[in-house]
Fold this protein.
Amino acid sequence: MSFSRQTGERLERTFTRRSAALMLAQAAVFGGLGMRLYQMQVLEAAETGALAEGNRTRRMLLAPRRGRILDAAGNVLADNAENFRAVLLPRTKLDAGLLRAELKRLAPVLHLSEDEQERLILVAGRYGHERTLVLATGLTFEQVAALEVRSLEFPFVTAQVTSTRAYAVSPRPASMAMAHIIGTVGAAANLGLDDDPVLRLTEMRVGKTGVEAGMEHELRGRAGEAVMEVDARGRTLRQLKQTAPRAGRDVLLSIDSALQSRFVERLAAERGQGAIVALDIATGEVKAMASLPAYDPASLSGPGSEAAWRLLTADNERPLVNRAIAGVYPPGSTFKLVTALAALRAGTIEPKEKIECWGDVTYAGHVFRCWNRKGHKASDLHKALRESCDCYFYEAARRTGIDRIAAMAHELGLGETYKAGIARQQAGLIPTTGWKRLQGRTGWLIGETLLAGIGQGYVLATPLQLAVMTARVASGRAVVPTLIKRSGLEPAAEFAPLGVPDAALGAVRSGMVAVVNEPGGTGQQADLDDPHLTVAGKSGTSQVSRLSAERELKRALAFGARDHAVFVAYAPAAAPRYAVAVLLEHAGGGGAKAAPVARDCLKILFESDRLGARPSAAAPANGDVPAAAAAQPRGPG
Amino acid sequence: MFQNARQASPYARLMRVNWLVPALVCLLAGVGALALSSVAGGSFTPWASRHVMRCAGGLAAMLACALVPLRVWRALAVPAYAGALALLIAVPIIGTEALGAKRWLTAGGFSIQPSEIMKVALVLMLAWSTARVSPAVRTHPLWVVPVLMLIGLPVLLTLRQPDLGTAVLFAGIGLSMMFLAGTPLWIFAAGGAGALAALPFAAARLQDYQRKRIETFLDPGADPLGAGYHITQARIALGNGGAAGQGYLHGTQSQLDFVPEKMTDFIFVVIGEEWGFAGACAVLAVYALLTGVLFVMALTARDTFARLLIAGIAATLAIYVSINIGMVTGLVPVVGVPLPLISYGGTSLVTLMVGLGIALSAGVERASTAD
């Protein structure tokens, strides 16, 4: 018994010890829990606090209103039309069954057909919570009001106002005349991670072509944001804050649509494809930019627009392409201005130096023809430009070398695209020996220099580039074109002078005056027949393909192989104000076909100045412009 | 001395009750009522009111149990255990299935959960059986065999329901009481090694949802919107509480329903978000105090049965709290154990109150020895 009692006492002590141990263990566990809470609630509080905020808030980007596009006269060409739509709130957690029930309840309000409901359930399943599900668009005010009034019944749905792009559609000829310039908008595609998140909004439209794309940064504006408090089921409880979107800025074009229409009409009178560009030399403003064939922008919105798109994109005449900026053509003899200036600057020819022409010339075993089979006999620079003697410029190009010619071409704006506020410009091509090496074929051949010297071979340019070249030759300054109206306060001498000696420019300009005004000149049809408005110009006939003499007869009748007619001009010669480039596809000789068009274009420009239709940039303060150009009133006709 | 206690009037017994225990229970019940009001968005109804009513009923039951002489409880130990075991065996045969598990017995519109009865019965049975044998037998290694059978039967039966949380609770209670009863320490060491070796086999027998819970526990971030949702949201809400809390009724995660099961198993998260680290620690401290009081009561109790009984109830409470808070803080897998006296829910509240009442009854006998 005493043994048992001893054991009992020992056990009692064991119990005491072990109770204490168990209490300690429990204290340790509770202490551990306390430390865990400290870690979660104090040390990691900042991190999880942000998660909590993300949990309870939903951020909704609000699309900004897109800026409008106005012409120089202030007519609104591209505007926004308001459109009410019903959307499912973003990241609403509804499974297909619940969504189906929700849509069924909404169907009477939103007029959703059974098919439409099924389609929405499909779309919701595919895109999950990432996108705002648009349930219906084009809601009436009654429908919007019904949604608002019954918002407690439809906690997952909200009415939003969005805007769609609307283009001035009347008068139709005017809207077609501006179509290429304004361009098109579309949903943003192939977004990168760094792109503006507002582009992910389904209603967002970005410029795809034309000024819509070229001025995208101005037109887009900045997204606003609404922060909403939601519960775990995604129901919106209240709006915590809202930052209003900042609307995009309006863009004012340098082009007057009425003037533009007259250019398009004139171009249309030639019954072919082609482009015209007219520049204000002092400001670089594009006064008109015509391209045919064109399209009706109204056909690209609303019902049937998809079919219209398909038709236009499949059209062989490529009416969607703005030929003035994206059509690349051999510049033909208009390029001789570049060759001449390059040779004069390099000192490889003297203006008075005479080079003989007998109808063709042989270099390195190849025969190079002049357009005039009889030859021009002995020509100095003046006569060579006036009569566009090919032999003279073969020799000038040979002496100067392609790389120096290419440098001059770039200086005159060829081979370049400009910050002109319009997208999809093509750079054309100004070949160099380096470029040829990169093509991985044979090295540069001397014959290629000769062809390039008369604007054939590899040389390619757009009508806009040819107009810029003309403006630069006329002014001696690096004129940069723009489709956006410059504010009237900018000084006239804004553009930097070219690195071309004045004497060289003077010699070339006098040659260009002779083209239009002297007997034998290739562009006499460009003459305005006005002593105050002397026109200077240069014709070009760009060969579509190099053809052997034997096949020349056959090609004469084949339209697709006929030469492009090119003419560049500026006026008045003494104080250049406007530069014009005309390109008529497959029309034939530049002097015969394009020069009259250039003349009419200049006439339209100066007429509109006289009629005071162009009050602003038309009168630079420096007085260089002859009185006739701006001030002197004249009777009609 | 013994006579004296046996003959003590109910009033005398009531005077000898350790009033700290009901006081702390009331405090925790009050915390529960506040938290449940918050869950209801600041409304006393429907949950907090019912909780208060249940707690009041539970408190009455607790005091009633405290008034019952300890010898009655001693006598009830075997029948209670046998009855609870019988009911547990009956559950898979005639039980009601809910949420993929058979845990309930329904009879005449009244349903009971036998595993709840077993929680008290197991403590009673282990205390009774240990107290009944001589100290020499108690410490003999072979004594472990019948004790393990007493523990193992309810553990296996609840595992089959399946109810992992309760099974773990039974095992915890049983091991704590074996430890206190003086089982040689080397047996625990050997058992621990054996359990470790058996772990892969046990894992293979887990139910799918149990396996998923454990996988989720090990990596809650792997599927934050699915299985890991509970743990992730609990972590966010607790972190959002910070040191001082978002303020009563101002816990965004709790109020906007991001916290799952916030009335029941995850109510500690609501407290943690609205009252912060400070409030959470205070609640933890009250639990520590309550178990501390019970352990001290156990140390000064009159005999082995009373001591083990009180310590067993204390261990039950401590294990409950540890598993629940460990669960919501992501330290242990989500097994569905409520936070005692605070979580909304009747059955476990009543069980715990009865258990505490029995512990108080055992404590009263000690108090009577002082006379």
